[in-house]
Amino acid sequence: xxxxxxxxxxxxxxxxxxxxxxxxxxxxxxxxxxxxxxxxxxxxxxxxxxxxxxxxxxxxxxxxxxxxxxxxxxxxxxxxxxxxxxxxxxxxxxxxxxxxxxxxxxxxxxxxxxxxxxxxxxxxxxxxxxxxxxxxxxxxxxxxxxxxxxxxxxxxxxxxxxxxxxxxxxxxxxxxxxxxxxxxxxxxxxxxxxxxxxxxxxxxxxxxxxxxxxxxxxxxxxxxxxxxxxxxxxxxxxxxxxxxxxxxxxxxxxxxxxxxxxxxxxxxxxxxxxxxxxxxxxxxxxxxxxxxxxxxxxxxxxxxxxxxxxxxxxxxxxxxxxxxxxxxxxxxxxxxxxxxxxxxxxxxxxxxxxxxxxxxxxxxxxxxxxxxxxx
Length: 375
Prior knowledge:
Blueprint: E1 2-6, H1 12-22, E2 34-37, E3 41-49, E4 57-58, E5 61-62, E6 71-75, E7 79-81, E8 86-95, E9 104-107, E10 116-121, E11 126-128, E12 137-139, E13 145-151, E14 159-163, E15 166-167, E16 175-178, E17 183-186, E18 195-201, E19 211-222, E20 228-232, E21 237-240, E22 243-246, E23 250-255, E24 258-260, E25 267-272, E26 275-282, E27 291-298, E28 303-313, H2 319-349, H3 357-374
Parallel strand pairs: 1-3, 2-10, 12-19, 20-28
Antiparallel strand pairs: 3-8, 4-5, 4-9, 6-8, 7-8, 9-10, 11-13, 13-17, 14-15, 14-18, 16-17, 18-19, 19-22, 21-26, 23-24, 23-27, 25-26, 27-28
């Protein structure tokens, strides 16, 4: 990218004409710095009056072009201005391969009133708040996620945020973009907030395209299996590996110590809940399937596993306890029936006992009366 920068000394009208002739730049702000990307090109041009030798100055020192500083000087032949009754010359300072040594304050006259500051920016001028350089940011679901891009070489620059190629805008009470420190905050993060974030210098403030990437990832959350489980012989055996993480975890299955692949005839590894290889399936389990089953989930950041011991129960295994219970109930009912029947029979065979005392007294009175009447 070629950057053309100008300064002026005497004749504003002539300068305007030169701007229109030499470059497509419509306006120049001499009070602000001009940014050039490292490796790019830029040209400084200005008008000086009078005849003689004119020099360019950088940070107050005259520039002497050589193979180290990579400066090149050009100038037009002096021209006479009838308006000012003097000669003027257009001087140019060219740099084809900008580097950090070219950052500084430039003048085309040591005592000139106007100068131009040039800042050569590098691709890594944006400093991110990655947990580990080049490793991105670790997301913890439920906790705030804060991303920041510091523009050290351009302290007044603001950035524009993108996620997975789409620009991000603030969402009240959910996502906030702070221009003061070029940060992005998600108050209650989730696995969906993982992805590739890019902070780019606003092109309205910087002519060069600079950005930085922050990859947001999360460790794996794996739902643990029960210690053991029972499957009836001939029934389907299904085990689900519920793992979440960013990037999406890869899954491995083990029966005992042996890893299971998709080519196995009996054991099928299927997709589950959007997770490839998230389900282990055996259509008809048999006693040989009694074993430890392990699901291992892993990605670039993490690796976790969980194991369940599968017991195989015979088809009729549940029938024998049921028959035993039925037999116990039948025996108990028989005992109760016999007992009640015998008790009822004994009550029927018992002789009549003495009458109650009241009836006995009545009978005695009647007998006495009968005896008295006979007399």
